[in-house]
Amino acid sequence: MTPGLRPLVAGNWKMHGLAADGLALARAVAAGGEGIHAEILVCPPATLVAAVAAALAGSPVATGGQDCHANPKGAHTGDIAAAMLADAGATYVILGHSERRADHAETDAQVKAKAIAAIAAGLTPIVCVGETLAQREAGQAESVVRNQVTGSLPEGFAAAGGVVAYEPVWAIGTGKTPTEADIAAIHAALRQAVGATTRLLYGGSVKPGNAAAILALPDVDGALVGGASLVAEDFLAIARAAG
Fold first, then answer.
1. Which end of the chain has fewer CB atoms surrounding its CB within 10 Å, N or C?
2. Domain encompassing residue 84
3. In a domain, 2, yes or no
4. Strands (E), 130-228
């Protein structure tokens, strides 16, 4: 953890959740979130943002989106603007997740434009960075994430409270995690790149069993949680491990 920064534990539900089970999960997280020091965030699919935000109103749990368009409005069928997420009750938005970068060929420049739009709409962006297994094996992990940070974070990102999440691509949903030394090394490099006031999250197969050790590492200010965020007890255990 970084002294002076409140930890953030964010749940990325990805493409999971219909109304009944999504609202049940949100309410279970809210019910168990009282008294936890870490800031807790859930990011449901866009169809549930408004309902989840309403269900979580007055609770210690915030709501976020999983993506937004760079433009505030326009002829962009199927997309959602940052202002629309804010209007639905979101306060955060995940940007540049490796699944977006891979499945939709998103570039650093596009992620940066989205971050600018998010900040303009009053949302806090969580920008994701991370290397592939081939890049790690080639010794390029640190340079890859540094380049992603340089290309993806706009001016004013830190002042807007922006968050950076390091998720090694090869660890997402695989059950594999880097060594604690590897995580610490990447987070140290990111700290040099973003400064002392930006929260740095780790993501990639974070589970109750490994959360405490990961969250105790220097410069790890919370977690971006995928699969474990779909089980309220597991997600809350990770949040408790953050302090």
1. C
2. 9-241
3. no
4. 163-166, 200-203, 222-225
Alpha carbons 166 and 130: distance in angstroms, whole number: 6
Q: Where are the beta strands (DSSP E) in the chain?
A: 8-12, 39-43, 61-65, 92-95, 124-129, 163-166, 200-203, 222-225
Instruction: Specify the CATH number for the domain of residue 186.
Output: 3.20.20.70
Of 97, 106, 142, 187, which residue is the catalytic one?
97
Q: What are the CA-CA distances from residue 149 to residues 10, 74, 115, 146, 182 (Å)?
A: 20, 28, 12, 5, 18
Do the beta carbons of residue 89 and residue 121 sit within 8 Å?
no
Q: How many domains does the chain contain in total?
A: 1
Q: Supply the angle between the helices 180-194 and 141-152 in degrees, to the nearest 10.
A: 30
Pick from 21, 8, 11, 72: which is nearest to 47 by CA? Answer: 21
Using DSSP's 3-state secondary structure scheme, residue 51 falls into helix
Answer yes or no: is 149 within a domain.
yes
Position 230 in a domain: yes
- pLDDT means per 10 residues, the chain with 243 residues, are 93 98 98 96 98 97 98 98 98 97 96 98 98 92 97 97 95 84 96 97 94 97 97 98 90
Pairing of strands 92-95, 124-129: parallel
Decide if 189 contacts 146 (C-beta within 8 A). yes
Q: Is-catalytic flag, 167?
A: yes
Q: Which of 39, 99, 142, 167 is catalytic?
A: 167
N- to C-terminal Cα separation, the chain: 9
Is 69 among the catalytic positions?
no
